[in-house]
């Protein structure tokens, strides 16, 4: 434990910003309760300094983002082969600040049950409210949580979708604060659209969310795609900022799950196994 931060949270790579929006000169940022100073030279070279440290932080440049760590990650940033496919649209969707635990945001991303009630007539609609059984596993070799064989009827599964379809989903949680969704691609039946959500915990109950998409879509404009994704996330933010407790409960029976919450159950179990406490209401077992 360093400065109240558990090792599992400390020793991770985190997105700080989309590289293209980082201004030349000095700018401020924050990660895990620590103030950061970002220094970008005219030639594009970047250094990041944490308050109280003389040496710059380790950095990585991946998926169009600048990543940093306050700890010593045991592995490099997770692979995402779709990010390197030349025919995919790369759509960084900006950043949204949320007054909620970063763990809450990841868990909300995994939840299909809220689609008809929060994203009405877009990602879900009554009477199609039932979450069908799906498969969840903690893949030990990759140390990731996966939910597969997920299906849900959606009136508009993507901006390019013309009619309602039963959408296929796969969810992947790579680190406590990063997750990816693979979903039915309306424009290519043999491929997936890919939507990532990389969460930057500013403090235990406050974070910045960085959504990104890799899509097969040669029709929609970039502005339209960004507006669609931001509309979805801003609908989620209203719910996230009103959840109580603010931090994610890891105590048994603190929140009663249903069959639809299988991915949440696996995610919380995985967090407890890792000893994650940053953004949670209890020390992990």
From TrEMBL:
Oxidoreductase is among the record's keywords: yes
Pfam families associated with the record: VanA_C
Segments forming domain Vanillate O-demethylase oxygenase-like C-terminal catalytic: 99-273
Highest taxon above the source species: Bacteria
SUPFAM superfamilies recorded: Bet v1-like (SSF55961)
GO molecular function: dioxygenase activity
Keywords, comma-separated and alphabetical: Dioxygenase, Oxidoreductase
Protein name per UniProt: Phenylpropionate dioxygenase-like ring-hydroxylating dioxygenase large terminal subunit
Gene3D superfamilies per record: Naphthalene 1,2-dioxygenase Alpha Subunit, Chain A, domain 1
Keyword field contains Oxidoreductase: yes
């Amino acid at each position: 434990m360093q400065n109240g931060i558990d090792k599992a949270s400390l020793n991770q790579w985190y997105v700080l910003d989309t590289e293209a929006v980082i201004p030349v000169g000095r700018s401020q940022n924050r990660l895990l309760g620590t103030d950061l100073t970002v220094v970008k030279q005219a030639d594009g070279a970047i250094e990041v300094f944490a308050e109280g440290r003389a040496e710059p932080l380790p950095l990585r440049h991946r998926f169009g983002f600048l990543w940093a760590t306050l700890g010593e990650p045991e592995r490099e940033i997770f692979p995402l082969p779709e990010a390197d496919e030349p025919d995919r649209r790369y759509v960084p969707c900006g950043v949204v600040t949320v007054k909620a635990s970063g763990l809450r945001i990841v868990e909300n991303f995994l939840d299909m049950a809220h689609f008809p009630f929060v994203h009405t007539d877009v990602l879900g609609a009554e009477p199609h409210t039932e979450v069908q059984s799906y498969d969840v596993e903690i893949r030990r070799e990759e140390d990731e949580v996966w939910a597969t064989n997920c299906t849900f009827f959606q009136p508009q599964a993507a901006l390019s979708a013309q009619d309602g379809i039963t959408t296929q989903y796969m969810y992947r949680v790579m680190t406590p604060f990063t997750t990816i969704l693979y979903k039915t691609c309306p424009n290519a039946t043999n491929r997936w659209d890919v939507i990532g959500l990389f969460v930057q915990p500013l403090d235990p109950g406050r974070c910045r969310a960085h959504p990104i998409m890799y899509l097969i879509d040669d029709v929609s404009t970039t502005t339209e795609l960004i507006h669609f994704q931001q509309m979805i996330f801003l609908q989620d933010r209203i719910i996230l900022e009103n959840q109580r407790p603010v931090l994610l409960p890891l105590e048994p029976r603190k929140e009663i799950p249903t069959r639809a919450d299988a991915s949440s159950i696996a995610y919380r179990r995985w967090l407890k196994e890792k000893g994650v406490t940053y953004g949670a209401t209890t020390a992990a077992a």
